[in-house]
Amino acid sequence: GVPRCGASLHELNKALRIELKANANCVWQIQKNVNQTIRLIFSYFKFAPSSSCETESIKVYDGPSTNSPLLGQVCNDTDAVPVLQSSSDSLTFRITTNSMAFTRNFFAFYYFFSPEKKIENCGGRLTGPNGTLTSPNYPERYPEFTYCVWHIQTPKNSKINLRFQDFFLELNQNCQFDFIAVYDGLTTNTGLLGKVCGRAQPTFESSSNVMTVVLSTDYANSYRGFSAQYSSAPLPGPVEPTTILTCSSDSMRIVLSKSYLASLGYNETHLRLNDASCSPAVTDSVIFSFPLASCGTTKKVKGEKVTFSTKCKMENNSTLEVIYVTKNNVIQNTTAVGRYNVSMSFYDSDSFSKPVSESPYYVDLNQTLFAQVSLHSTDSNLLVFVDTCIASPQPDFGSLTYDLIRSGCNKDDTVVTYTPLEHYGRFKFSAFRFLQSFASVYLQCDILICDSKNTNSRCTQGCLSRQKRAISSHTWKTNIIVGPIRLKRDLRTADHSESLTKADAEETLNLQQYSFYTLSFVVLISNIIIVVAVILKYHKRQTGYSYQKIQSS
């Protein structure tokens, strides 16, 4: 039947045909006091198109509620026939759907069983260049509630060809009841090559020297089963390494092609991180993506480089430049790519809670300015130190500069530096005296990043003379530019100039309009005078030619 949204199930075995609409959140609980474990198989599932695991999924829990440990998750991109097994006599699963108008369909069945009860000729490990495998009781009917897994492994640098010579399983459109599933690898969690049932003679080929074959049956309609033969064939010559490693200040991404691994005689199951919970995503490639400070990564500091366990090195003296650029009156950060992500901002107070967003930053003369340098990294063992800060009226910092901080020492009487705090370096100072002479001022700071575990690093030594500074150490150095800073009186002057310009423009426009009207009036009067003159002249000529009396000779 079609169960309602969720149910409490107590049968020893049951098939569930589930149909759900949008915005569903349904929980099924399976429990029976029989001192056995539960095997739950989702032999068919169809989620809404393009749905993600975050919005639609089946979550299975090892116990009587959704607060029990999570056994596994099924979603749209699951590349397997999910089979989940409890550790006791209770199991719970929840299905959630998103808001898309779409009918979701699922078929699942479960049964209680005793793990210690073994079925003869059911699964195992097969090695060697070739071999055979058959279903239990072949050529007689296979048992009900059978779940057999065969792992096939041939010599390195080879691939496996699997051919079913005889095949007869219960026929169903989606192979929901009895089926064979074949996987490209040693696991049944991903890499599904195909799922078959009915009567056929299917063949499969792996991409490496390992393959997994699964037989699953339900409680009715058993048939002859199958007989299959596998053989190995050499893989093509060495594949060019197709690996990608990218590092940012807080994460690492490793991409390895499956074909390259296969050419070496390996597959994704041979790859792991120190932390087994950080498993890769597997598509045509094997992809690890994780924060630098997690997944068991280790960090080594040697000289001026930080090396993580996957040889991701942070380069010394890379430059990260952050300069404020105004567009549509909204402040933006234009950032050149650097190895560590470092930014610098002004704040409105010494609480450093509200950054200044306007650009340019208009200030009063002698106003106290609060600056903070921030390191964006998940590595909690890094420390930020403001080594040198200079001011200049030019963004390229030409010959005219003014020292605020030099080698960790305050050079301006108004500068106050705060004790380094994890990923933040902070200081305050008064608006520069030479703001009276220049329209804009820019600030450039040299930032050092050190390992906090090194108690003798440059970041912990504070103000040093030039001689002592030469023997100090740091992990990484970068340079930041921020600005411009301008006096508020310049803002008022600019506003006043703009007002005057607008008034002059209006006055000029009025004058132009007046001149146009005057000229038009003069032209009109001139035309009238000309017309009158022509008429009078014509009238005079007509009078001179009036009738006259002819005199006699």
UniProtKB/TrEMBL annotation:
InterPro entries membership: CUB_dom, Sperma_CUB_dom_sf, ZP-C, ZP-C_dom, ZP-N, ZP_dom
Tagged with keyword Signal: yes
PROSITE patterns to which the protein is assigned, alphabetical: CUB, ZP_2
SMART domains: CUB (SM00042), ZP (SM00241)
The CUB domain, residue ranges: 5-113, 122-233
SUPFAM superfamilies given in the database record: Spermadhesin, CUB domain
Residues passing through the membrane, by range: 514-536
Keywords: Disulfide bond, Glycoprotein, Membrane, Repeat, Signal, Transmembrane, Transmembrane helix
Residue ranges of every copy of the ZP domain listed in the record: 246-466
Keyword Repeat: yes
Protein name, entry field: CUZD1 protein
Source organism of this protein record: Pandion haliaetus (Osprey)
Organism phylogeny: Eukaryota, Metazoa, Chordata, Craniata, Vertebrata
Name of the gene this protein is made from: Cuzd1
